[in-house]
Design a protein that fits this description.
Low-confidence stretches: 4-21
CATH class of the largest domain: Alpha Beta
Radius of gyration: 23 Å
Distance between the termini: 61 Å
Helix content: 40-55%
Number of helices: 13
Number of domains: 2
Strand content: 15-25%
CATH architecture of the largest domain: 3-Layer(aba) Sandwich
CATH topology of the largest domain: Glutaredoxin
CATH superfamily of the largest domain: Glutaredoxin
Number of strands: 13
Shape: elongated
Largest sheet: 5 strands, mixed
Order of helices and strands: HHEHHEHEEHEEEHHEHEHEHHEEEH
Length: 320
């Protein structure tokens, strides 16, 4: 009996240790080419910790900073992270970026181009600020098309997997859907045309179920504003928060309105427009509707820059 208790104790300790070891930044065993491919698929940046075995601050970062759960949640959501020995597999990287200090932190875009460089020891708060500054810099440097320029992904194109949380705080993953998926982009709860359209979409629910299809609404607004969408429309569909506009960018529906339009919205809507999204850039998605097959391939779309024009329920059903 005593032996059984001992075994049970060590088993629980092992489980606890395993759970703890999975917190913090998830460093992946990939080379840079593999990381670039994955970053493109998941619409993320690349973070590389370039270290040496003799570097004291490198060891402290690994022990004290990288395991932090809050830091891990942020980096795992926005970066593909690599842990590379500068004196072994990382010699070419060290040479390319002229690294002389350790640890060195390389923040790269999806093509492997340098976005930001840092080095030295950081505590968790400091390093979280570094990661956030990299993300903001990348967003600021990226040119978003105007409404006249944005074209949207076309029929026949395949969409990379994306994940997002819905109003129930559940994770949605496109690749996990083994059925046709109808994706509807809205501008926000402040848009009366969006709310009216969402209400009308509820009439599709029985037909969607019979055709083994799922409808998902994509909103650029934060969860507290999505709650207003739910309250106004009484929808039972999943409403996903498109944090940092990643889904809109994947579908190529994101645009920057003219300054006079942004000024008009800010004047009449206040914080409901300015503070509701990931940033205050004023960017919005075209109110497009896409239907994807089981392999994430676009089989139909309704794309009209005029936010008053939406896909008809009849047209959606014809494509399912």
């Amino acid at each position: 009996m005593f032996t059984k208790i001992i075994y049970t104790f060590f088993f629980l300790v092992a489980i606890s240790f395993s759970a703890q070891s999975k917190t913090g930044i998830d460093f992946q065993a990939k080379n840079l080419d593999e990381a670039k491919k994955l970053a493109q698929q998941e619409n993320k940046l690349i973070f590389i910790d370039l270290y040496t075995t003799w570097c004291g601050p490198c060891k402290l970062m690994k022990k004290n900073t990288f395991p932090n759960p809050e830091l891990g949640e942020f980096f795992n959501k926005n970066f593909i992270s690599l842990y590379i020995d500068a004196e072994k597999e990382g010699t070419e990287l060290a040479k390319k970026f002229k690294i002389v200090n350790y640890p060195s932190f390389l923040f790269l875009d999806q093509n492997g181009e340098l976005v930001q460089y840092e080095y030295g020891y950081y505590n968790t708060t400091q390093f979280l600020n570094v990661g956030q500054s990299v993300l903001k810099k990348k967003s600021a440097n990226k040119e978003t098309p105007t409404l006249d320029e944005v074209k949207g992904k076309m029929v026949g194109e395949t969409i990379s997997n994306f994940t997002a949380k819905d109003q129930f705080n559940k994770n949605f993953s496109l690749s996990a859907e083994k059925k046709k998926t109808v994706l509807v982009f809205i501008r926000g709860q402040w848009c009366p045309y969006c709310n009216k359209y969402i209400e009308s979409l509820q009439n599709l629910a029985p037909e969607l179920q019979s055709k083994n299809a799922r409808l998902v609404i994509i909103s650029p607004e934060k969860p507290e504003f999505i709650e207003k969408t739910i309250s106004k429309t009484k929808t039972s569909y999943s409403v996903l928060y498109d944090e940092n506009y990643k889904i809109a960018e994947l579908f190529d529906v994101l645009y920057t309105p003219e300054k006079k339009t942004i000024d008009f919205y800010e004047k009449h809507l206040g914080d409901d427009f300015k503070k509701s999204r990931s940033d205050e850039s004023g960017r919005l998605p075209v109110s497009a509707t896409y239907i994807l097959d089981e392999n994430q391939k676009i089989i139909w779309r309704h794309f009209n820059p005029d936010y008053k024009e939406r896909a008809s329920l009849e047209d959606i059903l014809k494509q399912l």
